[in-house]
Amino acid sequence: MIRHLLLTACAQFLFVLAFGQNWESKLDPAVFRRPCGQLVDCIVVMAEQADLSEAAFIPRRKDKAPFVFQQLTATAERTQGQVLKAVQKHGSPYRPFFIVNMFRVERADLALLETLARLPEVGRIDPNPRVSNNLPCPEL
User: Fold this and answer.
1) Which of 52, 91, 94, 134 is 20 to 30 A from 117 (CA-CA)?
2) For residues 88 and 31, what is the distance between their CA atoms, to the nearest angstrom?
3) Strand order in the sheet with 122-127
4) Using alpha carbons only, how large is the chain's radius of gyration in Å?
5) Strand, helix or coil at 107?
6) Dihedral angle over CA of 104, 64, 74, 53, nearest 10
7) CA–CA separation, 51 vs 124, rounded Å?
């Protein structure tokens, strides 16, 4: 029985290793909740985020801030290249970020979403809804 479970687990691991994660599982379900053919604004969150754990051991802020900035920007520069190429090729407007290693992509179609989701560097793709603030203006 244990041997059978072990063989099943190994087979599943090899399948995932050979064929990768299903690209659709990287997309938030809300991305699919739009009329057919409608373009979507989304956030593409990279799988790798900067490791800032060593910053806890840097006592002075003036030393810590450059370390954190360097870690954040280096991670973004190292991991965002393939996403950048795909988005530029598609022609969608975008903006890269580095504090959270991600991109904002505007007017993405399903083909671009699939291309991005198939990249191993991409962790997930979330919708980026437009939010309006209708609060009353304070009287002066």
Assistant:
1) 52
2) 21
3) 94-97, 102-108, 40-46, 122-127
4) 20
5) strand
6) -80
7) 18
Q: Which pair of tokens denotes residue 37?
A: 């053919």
Provide the Cα torsion 98, 99, 101, 105; round to 10°: -70
| Alpha carbon distance 72, 75 (integer Å) | 5
pLDDT tens readout for residues 31-86: 877 777 789 999 999 999 999 999 999 999 999 999 999 999 999 999 999 999 99
Residues linked to residue 105 through DSSP beta bridges, in sequence order: 42, 94
- pTM for the model: 0.76
Dihedral sign computed on CA atoms, order 106, 127, 77, 23: negative
Residue with the two structure tokens 């699939």: 114
Q: Which of 77, 73, 69 is nearest to 121 (CA)?
A: 77
